[in-house]
Amino acid sequence: MVRKEIEDETDRVTGSNKGISNIPINLRVFSPNVLNLTLIDLPGMTKVAVGDQPADIEMQIRSMLMEFISKESCLILAVTPANSDLANSDALKIAKEVDPQGLRTIGVITKLDLMDDGTDARDILENKLLPLRR
């Protein structure tokens, strides 16, 4: 039900053809057993406009990302698939721009199961290839 409500609200704000908006969708979860925390799910970085997206979608998303991750209180979750070259990670590149020491960046490696035979992620997982504090 939560996912459906988020999808419906996204469509109301941006249309149903992969549009974006910097208008936040607020979802409040209350519990006496958790910390007060704000999570912001930003759009993934994209290179090519699809559907009704404007031609400058890449710059719009980059601007939106920078608006949030430039804040010193923001922890950056930089998600990168293991089956691509870490040196080409857009998420890590933009995180390094605002957090060059990696103090606020949490690196997340996904899709380990899709790595080519004979390759491994040991250096990444042991924080040797691109050291991050988190």
Describe the structure.
The protein is an alpha+beta fold. The protein is built from 4 helices and 2 strands, in the order ααβαβα. Strands 1-2 form a two-stranded parallel ribbon. The longest helix is centred in the N-terminal third of the chain and has 13 residues, at 2-14. It is globular. The mean pLDDT is 84.
Question: How are the elements arranged and paired?
Answer:
Layout: H1 2-14, H2 57-69, E1 76-81, H3 90-98, E2 105-110, H4 122-125
Parallel strand pairs: 1-2
Q: Total number of helical segments?
A: 4
The spatial strand order of the largest sheet comes to: 1-2
Mean pLDDT: 84
The helix/strand series, from N terminus to C terminus, equals HHEHEH
Structural class: alpha+beta
| Sheet with most strands | 2 strands, parallel
**Rg, Å, rounded:** 17 Å
Q: What is the multimeric organization of the chains shown?
A: single chain
**Residues in helices, as a percent range:** 25-40%
Overall form: globular
DSSP, total strands: 2
Uncertain segments are: none
Strand content: 5-15%
Ends apart, CA distance between termini:
32 Å
GO molecular function: GTP binding; GTPase activity; microtubule binding
GO cellular component, one term: cytoplasm
GO biological process, one term: synaptic vesicle budding from presynaptic endocytic zone membrane
Keywords: GTP-binding, Nucleotide-binding
